[in-house]
Amino acid sequence: MAIDRIDRQILSLLQDNGRMTNVDLAERVGLTAPPCLRRVRALEDAGAIRGYHADLDAARLGYPITVFAMVSLRSQAERDLSAFEDHVAAIPEVRECHMLNGEIDFILKIVATDLKSFQEILTTHLTPAPNVASVKTSLTIRTAKSRSGIPIPADGSPAGIGH
Amino acid sequence: MAIDRIDRQILSLLQDNGRMTNVDLAERVGLTAPPCLRRVRALEDAGAIRGYHADLDAARLGYPITVFAMVSLRSQAERDLSAFEDHVAAIPEVRECHMLNGEIDFILKIVATDLKSFQEILTTHLTPAPNVASVKTSLTIRTAKSRSGIPIPADGSPAGIGH
DNA sequence: GTTGAAACCTCAGATCC
DNA sequence: GGATCTGAGGTTTCAAC
């Protein structure tokens, strides 16, 4: 699938405002509603747009604590890596799990309602998990920037689908 | 603002599908459309819902590289911390910037089109930035879990707005 | 093959109860 | 919170370029 200038505009606008109406979107990209909607559907079907999500304020909703946990495992065999991923996938407070290169095997983003609850998650679900060698955690003091997704230059960017 | 069971359902559903229509949403939470819409607007006005965003597949759109950068500064004076935050806010490839406690001052999530381009961002915008003492980077091999926001238990959770 | 125009039908939003 | 109504938006069909 090839992505042209208009598709990039659509992606950029929907990344910024996922509930923009189709007629608004069409107007901004210089199309009428039907072809615009077809492009959006095509981007969804191709997997370029994975979904749409409300962006909630964690702190206001009872989750003021965000922690990054750097996890090292004893074994880096694929089945042990997968087992760890499966393990944290089942912990709702673990919001992200990325496998890294280097000394640290995984970085996790964890949210919690308070420090006590975080400590509990750590000591009952993370540290004692199979194959875990070490867990180093850092509390988030404040978040200066938090944009999901990717930068989308108005024009002349990369982006062709299918790697 | 007090959040009840129905509000939590609304938040959970919109976090999962930000483009769900109001009538769908109303039906699922057991309301008719108008009161449901009033609740959604109230949650938006209270800041519980900050916005709605399309979730794009970075890799399919030409950004296969995600890197975490751990940054330490020479000075942790507030004005120096803010200056660094302002500096990275202007770099579009830096998607997240969190201030941490401990030895590492900031963790950044950076996306890039390729390794060469990442290296260029690092050496021209990050390492030589004022007050930067050290930058350690780790490439993301794969992302096993990536959910924005917070866990929302169907019932009996915390969550009242205004801390 | 993609756009645009028109039709239809559902939804959003306001008002009132 | 629910019922009703109106105008706007979403979606399909079809013709034109």
Outline the structure in words.
The structure is a homodimer of 163-residue chains. The first copy, chain A, has 2 domains: 41 residues, Winged helix-like DNA-binding domain superfamily/Winged helix DNA-binding domain (Arc Repressor Mutant, subunit A, Orthogonal Bundle); 75 residues, Alpha-Beta Plaits (2-Layer Sandwich), CATH 3.30.70. Chain A is 35% helix and 28% strand. In chain A, a hairpin with a 5-residue loop joins strand 3 and strand 4. In chain A, helix 2 packs across helix 3. At the A-B interface, helix 1, strand 1, helix 4, strand 3 and strand 5 of A face helix 1, strand 1, helix 4, strand 3 and strand 5 of B. Chain A binds a DNA duplex (17 and 17 nucleotides) through helix 2 and helix 3. Chains A, B: It comes from Sphingomonas metalli.
Topology record:
2 copies of one chain form a homodimer.
Chain A: H1 5-16, H2 22-29, H3 33-45, E1 49-56, E2 65-73, H4 78-89, E3 94-100, E4 106-112, H5 115-126, E5 132-146
Antiparallel strand pairs in A: 2-4, 2-5, 3-4
Helix pairs in contact in A: 2-3
Chain A binds a DNA duplex (17 and 17 nucleotides) through residues 21-24, 31-35, 37-38.
Provide the descriptors you would attach to this structure in a database record:
transcription regulation (chains A, B); disordered C terminus; 28% strand; alpha+beta; 4-stranded antiparallel beta sheet; elongated; 5 helices; 163 residues; homodimer; DNA-binding; Arc Repressor Mutant, subunit A; 2 domains; Alpha-Beta Plaits; 35% helix
